[in-house]
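Why do we care about 3D structure at all? Because function follows from shape, and shape follows, mostly, from sequence. That is the central idea of this module. The next example makes it concrete: a single protein chain, its amino acid sequence, and then its structure expressed as tokens.
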Amino acid sequence: MSVATHAPTSEVTLRASDTAEFEQVTRALSAGEVDDPGWVAQARSGWDLLPLALRRSLREFRRHSGPRGALLVRGVPVGEPGVTPSVPGSVERSATVSAASLVLVACGLGDPAAFQAEKSGALVQNVVPVPGQEEMQGNSGSVLLSFHNENAFHEHRPDFVMLLCLRADPDKVAGLRTVCVREVLPLLSAETREALFHEEFVTEPPPSFGGNDGATAPHAVLFGAADDPDMRVDLAATTPLTPRATAALAELGEAFASGASVTKLEPGDLAIVDNRVTVHGRTAFRPRYDGTDRWLQRTFVAADVRRSRDHRPGDGYVLIR
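And the structure:
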């Protein structure tokens, strides 16, 4: 018997009927608290009720995230968002339609995950501009956000980062930037590729963790298979330790800039980034702080939650260190 194979895709647009079916599942989860393990268990069961075309696309993406290491799903239900929040540390605790959409998809890709030190360990976090934090290299800033693997400093950084658009910025200029190691590897010199595979870099925690616990031990930026490596870097927080590492990181940054894709997310667009092989950032934009600003919601996914068991009390979803 022959088995059909499917090439990885970078974009999926749900049919109107699929969006309606998806929203029906989210509304069945509308009562409860997102961070309650019992509610997450209900969401895990709800995954089986999502449209088949969506589940099939996500399963293929989990197995291989394709040349861009990112997937855009259009037509995801977000409900009726209110005023864009503008306070530091904003999160979504209640089981809204958008929050349920994120956790349902997370349960299909693996398990939702969060870090206690970041946004109080909420599984669904608001990514919004905050007054006074415009220059911050983080989710509350509005200047150009440099390329990074999410939480590159952490031993158990997310495998996938999901960003769901509830509202675009009024000026329609903010764009999600992504670039995959599979795209930039051919652009790098042999000397740079070799240097990036050596443990000659350290990385600091991002500002969103609210403090500085010190840099990592020396690590490589590229690791794993030479022809399809994983990547661990944050251009705003990773420091090279040797002259060749300095030159290599500079060349890598240039390759990121030349190879990046920019996507202007619209309401109902869900961007899923394979954090193991793809860095992301954001173009600059001008917030208005009048309730109409850009509003994304974010959830992290662990493909193998077992790996971080010693960091999660009670086998929950929040890493405490």
